[in-house]
Amino acid sequence: MGRGRAKAKQVKVARQLKYNSGGTDLDRLRDELGVGDPGREDDTDDLNDELADRYADYADDYGTGNDDRPSGNRSSS
Asked: pTM of the prediction?
């Protein structure tokens, strides 16, 4: 018993979601997702530059060759 009332409520909620799509706050969603506006200054460029500088030192030390790593190509010779 009571299945009809629960189903009616689900149908009502589904219809609201389907037909009432105008209530989305895109600015709030952008903030929650952590996506910044292109015109707004963020610290992400500074962090990326810092990481690039840090790992550039490793690239200088180890070079760009893959001599130390296995190539993944196995030959049966």
From this structure: 0.28
